[in-house]
Amino acid sequence: MNASTPNLRWSSVRPQSKRAFTLVEMMVAIGALAVIITGLMAVFHQVTRAFRLVNTQTDVEESGRLVLSMLERDLREANFEPVTTDITAPANILNFCVTNYGSAYTNLLPYGITNTMHKIFFLRRENNRIIANGYYIDDRNRYGYGTLYRFEDWHHSEDTNRYTGSRRAWTKFTQSVTAAANGTNWSRITDGLIHLQFRLLDRAGGDYLNPYYTNSPPLSPQSRNNNLFLQSANGVAYFYRDELPAFVEIEMGVLEPEVLKQVRAMQSTAQIKAFLQKPLQTGKVHLYRQRIPIHNATY
Fold first, then answer.
1. Residue 247: strand pairing partners
2. Number of domains the chain contains
3. pLDDT category, 26, cuts 50, 70, 90?
4. Considering the domain boundaries, does residue 271 fall inside one?
5. Within a domain: 151
6. Which residue from 122, 17, 18 is spatially nearest to 71, judged by alpha carbons?
7. Residue 38 belongs to some domain of the structure
8. Residue 71 and residue 64: Cα distance in Å, rounded?
């Protein structure tokens, strides 16, 4: 053998075997993954639900603010027929009226407030026009909730029969309310109103709709002597000639759309009332309050 030739040896090297997952390990991994996915799905569901809830509440809040803005715009400009220097003008020209026509249900609103459904009618001036406006909730089935409608009619202030025009507007308003807001004078505003209350205040804060109100100042002597302001114990107030309240305080309750959808699927008044009186549902009524000054109030 040549000394320069290396000594070659044959050796067999046994490869190392790779260890695989056992069935138990795979089942544990799949179970852990399932738990993680289930948790993620639950979190996603809660986030989605919260997102929908926030969107719903935002829509309801925006709708409520728009309604209050419309009421504020109209009520601020409440006015009367220009009859203060017209001695021939009839004394029974109705300028402003609030009446209670809805059934009062207890425990439908948060904080133990009894829901009320007022309708309101008033006059305002716009250039040479006398505009009659009104608002009321259409609750023809006495379910305790309904749709808010807005009434509008007008006539020229220079008309010789303008006083007849005001009476005609009031007649249209009352007849249309009875006919469930049918006619061209009515506009649908929003659905799901469960509460609409107007408090009429004088400049001293006295509530005209309080049955104990005594027609004390700041009402004018003319009003007290000629019965230009009338009210009764069941929440009704009428203002004639140049009499107007100094402030109108609005309280409004609106159902959330999801609750309204459930209520509309019910047919029985008793079933609807029982459903709305549940504590869970009273928390889904959005309440709004606003006090509006009447710019043209004299006293």
1. 201, 293
2. 1
3. confident
4. yes
5. yes
6. 122
7. no
8. 11
